[in-house]
Amino acid sequence: MGLALSIGGYYLLTQSFVTRWIVTSSLSSLSGGEVTADAVTITLGGGIDLKGGVLRAPGVAGPGGTIFEVRRLRAKTDPWAMLRGSVVLEDVEVESPMLRISQSVDDATVNVASLALRGGGSGSGAPTQIGTLPRVTVRGGVIELGEHRASGEFTSLRRIEVVGDVEREADEGGAAVLSLRQAENGVALEGGMEVLGRVSAKALTLELGRLSLSSLPPEHVPTPLREAFRQMRLEGEATGVAFEYWFEGRGVTARIPLAGLAVSLPLEPQPGEDKDENKIPLSEEDAKRRMRMEGVSGEIEITAGGLRGDLAGAIEGVPYTLTVEWGGWNQGAPFDATITTTAYRLEQHPDILWFAPGVVRLRLEQFDNPTGLVDATVRVFRERGATPDAEMPIRVSGDVRVREGVAAFDRFPYQFQNIDAHITFDETRIDFRSLTGVATSGATIAASGFIAPPNEHPEVRILVESSNLPTDEKLQVAMRGKGRVFDELFNYDALAALRGAGVLAPSAAEATAQRPFIELGGRASVTALVTRALGEGKNWGDVITIRFPQVTLLPRAVPYPLLGTDVTLVSRDDLATLETGTFKGLSGASVAITARVDLAALSDPDVDFVPEVTVRATDLPTDALL
């Protein structure tokens, strides 16, 4: 009878529903969750065999509350301590376990946060470090990431079959470390993704090894991050992508190390402007463009509240470094991005200008879309509105330095090369702080000025000063319609006639005292001041001053060669005058000239050009030139 009672008691304590109740109650107390099992067996040799185990988060309804399931768990334990309600497990081996990490769509809390870990049988009720977990060997396991609602609805986002270990980490945080590898049919895949994790009292971190971002559709990431992933259109592979689930309700954070990847930022292209300062709408296809970064390295941190990152790569073909913070995923979310590029070879019409205000593109076109080597720092930002629905304007500021540049201002489009320039700008003004260059003719240029604000109706003051400028075809073209004055002052048809008649020598080598050789024109210094008053409907104005130390004229009206000294021509808007100058003929005559030209008529090819010119000459010899 005693033997039978002993056998019955042994069975009752080690293999019965009592065993199951004792063990699951102890594990529930230890984990802070609700533990159930189909069967539990304890051996006197210190072994425990649990089948059909489930750990649920208290207060979380539906599948999202199931944190852990295991087909079978075997471990070593102190059976007498176990039976007294103190669970201490060692060398744990689990078969077909499933770890489910689920975030609430309603309040961003994570199911694991509902657990309140306790010390192993201490009875103190004080929370203990997770480092008290034993070493765990995982066979044929699954990590499932999902999200749930208070109604009990659950959505599985991603399931990863794994094998590996969970073990203590000898650090002050007392965390448990997961070291798992992607598997198939319970066998680790060669080259498969690694899953590293860390469970501390504050958070669960899962770090994915090699991950193809293009194979991670937005539907596989938590809802708060889903729109971010969709807009970013990530392409390429990343190593060490980490998801951090904070237990106290801070939500989930994703950290993505980038190396050679492609990613889009939610910056939209801007409509252009024509020369009449009218908006040019974007095509439907262009309006869908977003700023694209390629060859990206660095790290992006994404939360439900936005993103931050330090990156390097190429933005729309421009090499850059980028520091960015984005304060949300709604249409008018605040952001702050600083872009830096060094020694970028700027070509005409770069794609990145799609994302600059249309007026900026218009102003660049006014400088013939300059090219050169560019060093630039540009800040693009939008401040947070006073209310969530208030969308603030995008603001831009920058500092640009250009080397080896080529440009021409459309009000005086004389092209210069080897330009060194320093330009600063923001949404209120563009400042041309300095600009120097050299033309192929040997002429030099220096320019400065401002456009404020850089919109449809700005105030403008641009001062361009050039020296050693030849009176050639390029200068005539740069003066546009006003260049017809050169035809009146430098009559090459009359020059050819005088050479053909033998009055003038055709070359310097053939010149004599009686038949001199002359070349029309000279080298001038030119100052062009371009202005516009602030406001709608204001006209552009320009004052161009041309000074010749020495110049040779052959006027069309009076085809008599004249040598000029200290000659100054001034063009003010639609009126040009000869303001200073001393003239003489080739044979010594003294000549005084006054001239006044209506440039409005001069610029119209359909209107006869009749300048007002008065010539007074003394001591004029009656020679062949006359």
Topology, number of strands: 32
The number of helical segments is 10
**Strand-residue fraction?**
over 45%
- Name the quaternary structure: single chain
Rg over CA atoms, rounded to whole Å, is 42 Å
Termini Cα gap: 155 Å
User: Could you tell me the mean pLDDT?
Assistant: 79
- The percent range for helix content is 10-25%
Class by helix and strand content?
mainly beta
Low-confidence stretches: 1-13, 117-131
What is the overall shape?
rod-shaped
Major beta-sheet overview: 30 strands, mixed
Plain-language structure description:
There is one protein chain. The chain is mainly β and 626 residues long. It is 13% helix and 49% strand. It contains ten helices and 32 strands. The strands form two sheets. It has a 30-stranded mixed beta sheet that branches. It has a two-stranded antiparallel sheet with strand order 15-16. A hairpin with a 2-residue loop joins strand 22 (395-409) and strand 23 (412-426). Helix 1 (2-15) packs parallel to helix 2. Mean pLDDT is 79; it is low at 1-13 and 117-131.
What keyword list fits this structure?
626 residues; mainly beta; 30-stranded mixed sheet; rod-shaped; disordered N terminus
Q: What is shown here, in short?
A:
The chain contains ten helices and 32 strands. By secondary structure, it is mainly beta.
Annotate the secondary structure layout.
Elements (H helix, E strand, L loop, with lengths): L1 H14 L1 H15 L2 E3 L2 E4 L4 E10 L9 E12 L1 H5 L5 E7 L2 E7 L31 E13 L5 E15 L7 E9 L2 E2 L5 E6 L3 E10 L10 H10 L4 E10 L4 E15 L6 E2 L5 E2 L3 H4 L3 E13 L2 E10 L2 E9 L8 E12 L11 H9 L4 E12 L12 E15 L2 E15 L3 E9 L5 E9 L6 E12 L2 H6 L5 H6 L2 H9 L22 E10 L7 E14 L8 E11 L2 E11 L4 E9 H5 L8 E7 L8
Parallel strand pairs: 5-7, 6-7
Antiparallel strand pairs: 1-3, 2-3, 3-4, 4-5, 4-6, 7-8, 8-9, 9-10, 9-11, 11-12, 12-13, 13-14, 14-17, 15-16, 17-18, 18-19, 19-20, 20-21, 21-22, 22-23, 23-24, 24-25, 25-26, 26-27, 27-28, 28-29, 29-30, 30-31, 31-32
Helix pairs in contact: 1-2
